[in-house]
Amino acid sequence: MNAEAEAENELRRRQLDTEERAEQIVPGSEIDSDDDPPLQATEPRPRHSLKGAEQETTFLHTVLSPLPKRWRNWVIRGIFTWLMIGLFCLIIYVGPLALMFTTLLVQVWCFKEIINIGYSVYRMHGLSWFRSLSWWFLITSNYFFYGESLVADYFSVIFSKSDIMRWLIAYHRFTSFTMYIVGFVWFVLSLKKRYYMRQFSLFAWTHVALLIVVTQSYLIIINIFHGMIWFIVPVSMIVINDVMAYMFGFFFGKTPLIQLSPKKTWEGFIGGGISTVVLGMVLSYVMCQYPFFVCPVEYSESEDNFNYTCDPSPIFRPQEYSLPETLANLSALLGWKKTITMYPFVLHSVALSLFSSVIGPFGGFFASGFKRAFKIKDFGDVIPGHGGMMDRFDCQYLMATFVNVYIMTFILETSPQKLLQKVYMLKPEQQLQLYNMLQDSLIARGILQP
Fold first, then answer.
1. Tag placement on the chain: N or C end, fewer CB within 10 Å?
2. Are 253 and 385 found together in one domain?
3. What is the mean pLDDT of residues 335-359?
4. Is pLDDT above 90 for 61?
5. Do 227 and 296 meet the contact criterion of CB atoms below 8 Å apart?
6. Are 372 and 436 found together in one domain?
7. Do 75 and 222 lie in a common domain?
8. What is the C-alpha to C-alpha distance for residues 165 and 413, in angstroms, rounded to an integer?
9. Average pLDDT over the chain, rounded to whole?
10. What does the pLDDT average to over 120-146?
C-alpha cells in the first residue's frame, strides 16, 4: 500500500511540475532545452499581431501596385515619413505645451501596444482585470512623476492659488503610495489557482513597460522645460539618423550589421552617423538664433502666462574660439582669422549626434530582439510603412535619458526662478520668515545696506 501511495504521489507531483513548466513557457516561443517537447498553442495568434507595417491603405495599394514590393514599401515609408515630419513641425509651431501633450499621447499609445502584446502572447483571455490593472498602474505612475516634479517645480504659482491643489501637492507622495497599494491589493485578489505564474509574469510585464515608457516620457517633458531646443534637436537627430541610415542602406547596403536586424547594414550605419553629425550641427546653429527655441519654459506671474522670451544662456550666445596651432597657421597663410566664432551649443550637439548615431540605434536593436522573442514583426500597424508607435519611438526613449543626464551633468545651473517657485509653495508666514532671514544674511555680509 505504501508503494502504491508513493507512486501515486510521484505521478501527481510530475503532473504539477508539467503544468507549472507549461505556464512558464510562452506559446510559440523557442524552447531552450532540447529535452523539452515543443508546446502547441491552444489558440491562434491574434491577426493584428501579424499585420505589422505591411498593412497598407487600399488607395496606396492600388496606386502603387505596378511597383515591385521593395520600391512600393520605400514609397509608402517615404510618404508617411514626410507626413510625420510635417505634423511634428506643426506641433512645434503651436508651442511647448502642445509638445508636452503630444508626448503624453505617444506615451499612452506605446504603453497600449506593449500591454497588448503581453495580453495576446500569454493567452490571458480567460483571466479578468489584467488590462484594468495595467491602466491603473499607468495612471498611478503618471500621477507620481508629474504630480510632484512638474507641478511643484514649474506650475506651483498656478496651483498654489487653490487650497485643494496645495493640499494635493503637500500629500502627493502619500496619495501616490495609496494608489499603488490599491493596485497591489487588487492584483493579489485577482490571482487564480493554476494561473499564478502567468499572472505574476504579466505583473512584471506591466512594471517593465512602465519603466520603459513612463519614465522616459517624463524625462522628455523635463527636457522641454529646459528649452525646446533640448527636445527638438535630439528628436531630429534620431529622425535624421533613421532616415539617412535607411537611405544609405537601401541604395548602398551590402554588409550586414547585426543579426537582430538583418536589414541593417554597415553602409547605412556609417552613412547615417556622418549625416547626423553634419545636419545636427547645421540645425543647432539655426535654432540657437531664436529665443523661442532656447529659452526655458517658465510661468510668469506678472503676465499670468508662460514666458518664451529671456536673456539666452551663455551656451546659446556666439563665442570666439582659438583654432589649434596647425589650423591657425594654415588659416593665417590663407589670410583668415586664427579664431572661429561659434555657438557653444553647436559643440554640445556633436556629443548628442554621436550618441544618437552610435548608441541610439541599439534602442532599435533592443526592440527588434524583443519582437523576435515573441515572434511578431511590429508593435502595431497604426503608421503604414512604419509599424506601430513604439516602432518609431524605440530610439527616442533612449535618447531622452541621455539628454537629461547630459543636461544635469554638464549644463544645468541653479536658477533663481526655480528657487522662487519653491518659495511660492510655502505658507505666507514661512515666506515672510524666509525674507527676513535672507535680508539679515545679506546685511551681515555687507551685500545689502541696513
1. N
2. yes
3. 92
4. no
5. yes
6. no
7. yes
8. 29
9. 79
10. 81
Rounded to two decimals, what is the model's pTM? 0.76
- State how far the Cα of 432 lies from the Cα of 440, in Å rounded to an integer: 12
CA nearest neighbour of 59 among 79, 41, 40, 43: 79
pLDDT at 114 over 90: no
Distance of alpha carbon 242 from alpha carbon 392, whole angstroms = 9
Do residues 224 and 150 share a domain?
A: yes
Is 22 domain-assigned? no
180 and 249 part of one domain: yes
Whether 41 shows a pLDDT value over 70: the answer reads no
Greatest pairwise CA separation for the chain in angstroms: 106
Torsion of CA 98, 99, 105, 110, to 10 degrees: 170
Report helix angle 389-406 to 361-373, nearest 10: 140
Per the structure, the complete domain to which residue 448 belongs is given by: 417-450
pLDDT band at residue 155 under the 50/70/90 scheme: low
Look up residue 351 and give its three cell numbers.
Answer: 556629443
Please report the DSSP string for 350-380 in residue order: HHHHHIIIIITHHHHHHHHHHHHHTT-S-S-
The pLDDT of residue 157 is 55
Cβ atoms of 252 and 267 within 8 Å: the answer is yes
One domain, residues 58 and 104: yes
Question: Tens digit of pLDDT for each residue in 7-40?
Answer: 455 545 544 444 444 444 343 333 333 333 333 3
- Residue 112: inside a domain: yes
Contact 200, 20 (CB under 8 A): no
CB atoms within 10 A of CB 341: 9
In a domain, 333, yes or no: no
DSSP string over 268-328:
HHHHHHHHHHHHHHHHHHHHTT-HHHHS--EEETTTTEEE------GGGS-EEEEPPHHHH
Please compute the mean of the pLDDT values over residues 146-152 and round it to a whole number: 70
How far is Cα 358 from Cα 370, in angstroms, rounded to an integer?
A: 20
Do both 304 and 279 map to the same domain? Answer: yes
Query: To 5 degrees, how large is the angle CA 279–CA 224–CA 275?
Result: 10
CB 56 within 8 A of CB 384: yes
Pairing type for strands 298-300 and 261-265 reads: unpaired
Q: Are residues 152 and 174 in the same domain?
A: yes
CA dist 120 and 131 (Å) reads: 11
* Counted domains in the chain: 2
pLDDT digit string (tens) for 388-443? 788 878 888 889 999 999 999 998 876 676 677 677 767 788 889 988 898 888 88
Q: Is residue 47 part of a domain?
A: no
Residue 126: what are its φ and ψ, rounded to 5°? Answer: -85, -5
